[in-house]
Amino acid sequence: MANIGKYELDSIVQGDTRELVAQLPDSSIDLLVTDPPYFLPVQSYVGTREGGYSRRTLADMTILQTYFDVMFEQFARVIKPSGTAYVFCDGQSYPIIYRSMYPYFNYVRPLIWNKIVSYNGYTWRHQHELIAWGEGFEAERIPTGDGDVLECRGVLQADRLHPAEKPVKIMRDLIAKHGKEKIILDPYAGSCPVAVAAKVTGNHFLCFEYDKVNVETGRQRVADAKLPAFESLEQGGLWAV
After folding, report:
1. Is domain 3-234 classified as CATH 3.40.50.150?
2. Residue 107 phi, psi (nearest 5)
3. What is the pTM of this model?
4. Higher local confidence (pLDDT), 35 or 238
5. Radius of gyration of the chain (CA)
6. Looking at residues 48-62, what average pLDDT do you find?
7. pLDDT of residue 60
8. pLDDT value at position 233?
9. Of 47, 82, 134, 178, which has the maximum CB count within 10 A?
10. Do residues 74 and 22 touch, judged by C-beta distance below 8 A?
11. b/e per residue, 176-213, with b = 16+ CB within 10 A?
12. Nearest to 189, CA basis, from 161, 148, 156, 169
């Protein structure tokens, strides 16, 4: 099995992604496909003699912005100049992700993931998420003409192996756009749908995940993944194997 730096390709590594990514070689990754923990703001507190009060302010985002600024400096180091990034986020976190990605990519645009069915909420129920898409300065343009709205049913809550699990199909559609034999990094792997999608599209993967249970789950999912098992995911999706 080939290696990428100290890591074996097609492996899921347990540990803190901040430390693990720092040990990757420069310009070693073709695709970054990941679903980070993207909205964890703190709330500002302003003290007064009467005991103080809390208020909402953009400073609430400072910790998250600083974290992603640091991480994308590392991601940009390991992604090839011809590489591409797909980062899942939402309407609240997209400005933060965009700002962190902007210095390192030729351009950054949002893709819209339409989940088909709306989920919990009031007034306007939640039916979509965003994917921040960044192309490297030397990335090959792919003249497919596909639209930037991707339709894919979300994973039913009863079927999830991770609270924020994304479907294998949408990961497969993103990865298949770029062909085969690519090296794909997912530094926030969760239950590892990116690893499964990479395997069934003929690509290589390297996944980092902090939680031991998720790592074990992901390794089993990859071991069980065979192409015929995913033929039912074909409906409405891209397929290139």
Report:
1. yes
2. -160, 160
3. 0.86
4. 35
5. 18
6. 64
7. 72
8. 44
9. 134
10. yes
11. bbbeeebbbbbbbbbbbbbbbbbbbbebbbbbbbeeee
12. 161
Q: Helix 168-176 vs helix 193-200: angle between axes, to the nearest 10 degrees?
A: 50
Q: How far apart are CA 174 and CA 33, in angstroms?
A: 8
Tokens of 215: 């790592």
User: What average pLDDT is seen over the chain?
Assistant: 86
Q: What DSSP line would sit under the chain, residue for residue?
A: --EETTEESSEEEES-HHHHHTTSPTT-EEEEEE---------EEE--TTS-EEE--GGGGHHHHHHHHHHHHHHHHHEEEEEEEEEEE-TTTHHHHHHHHGGGSSEEEEEEEE-SS--S-SSS---EEEEEEEE-TTPPP------SEEE-PPPPGGG-SSTTPPPHHHHHHHHHTT-SS-EEEESS-TT-HHHHHHHHTT-EEEEEES-HHHHHHHHHHHHH--GGGGGGGGTTS----
The answer to whether 81 touches 116, Cβ cutoff 8 Å, is no
